[in-house]
Amino acid sequence: MTEPRRSNWTRRKFLGVGLGGTASFLGVSLFNRSAPLQQEPPLPTPTHDMGDMPGMTHSGMSGMLVGAVDHERNGFDPMQMLVDWDYGTLTGETTEDGRPIREYNISAGDIEIEIAPGVFFPAWAFNGRVPGPSIRCVEGDRLRINFSNFGSHPHTLHFHGFHPAEMDGVDGEYRGEINPGESFVYEFDADPFGCHLYHCHALPLRRHIHKGMYGAFVIDPLGEQRPPARELMMIMNAFDTNFDAANEIYAVNTVGHEFMRRPIPIKVGELVRIYLINIVEFDLINSFHLHAHFFDYYDTGTTLTPTLRTVDTIMQAQGQRGIIEFRPRYPGRYMFHAHVSEFAELGWMGFFNAVNEADYPAALAEAGLDEQWDVKAMNGSAVRVSEDS
Fold it and tell me: Which domains does the chain have, with CATH numbers?
């Protein structure tokens, strides 16, 4: 296989081309876009040549990556990922004590994805998307996850939550790695309720994570429920496009500056709930900052009362996650982004478009969305879906 051409581009040079050059030049310069990109050189020691990165105005669109990503080609849309929950299938079976069994099918494979206009990345993915499917269930459900590896490397599934050691998906322990062409069934109970994640735990771990092998894992409480809200899933991720152990593109749900181009429509006065997960590799800390508003934060989402109240910025290490809740007070476009300027300039920045009820259909249309997206956003709970099925 042909290894990707090693690049001596700094992040400063990358940003300069991204903001001032053409998308086609980016694609040609950074990648040979063919499938053999799956075999990259060993990861070196990280180096962060920040240089004097060009500035961006903090008030609008002038600093946005140029162009648009082909979501149809990618096979997934970051805007749909906000509301696209995988509830699995209730099999009709129950455990000995009467709890439902919920079944999922997850596969691993190699794909090429577009992460910024004209910038392609050789990903390892679950179910052909990065991040993988957003698994959602109810506290106490018995989960049966049929995992198949169609990729070129050994992989595993490791879930954050309570489970037996045999189901931990760790390389070298119990079943361990699932080799290409093999399958394995993970089975455990959904516990505790909260905002969690899953990822591949094969070695080298940092390679499997930065290549895209992760997803959201949300467990709704069985008893007292969270109040109704517009619910959105955001995974903060990043991509090392030249394999120098430093990221060149940062994003929420994979595509840099996607929510700058397509502001997320919300309604004035409604409760907005964000399931926020940080999976960025190579950087110790990520953050979320919301303009002109304050929010309550539920660290890990394992409580029904906030762990932080009335804040506008939170930090997360890799694997850390939580739930954000806020109510927009006034109409307008409100920026949200990492409060690390480098991350924002390289793609981790977007807008909410808060509108009154009468203007909401137009806001949906502006973002290329329909009423079905709105229905999903307002009916995310697995408890409600289970009751309706």
Answer: 72-220 (2.60.40.420), 230-388 (2.60.40.420)
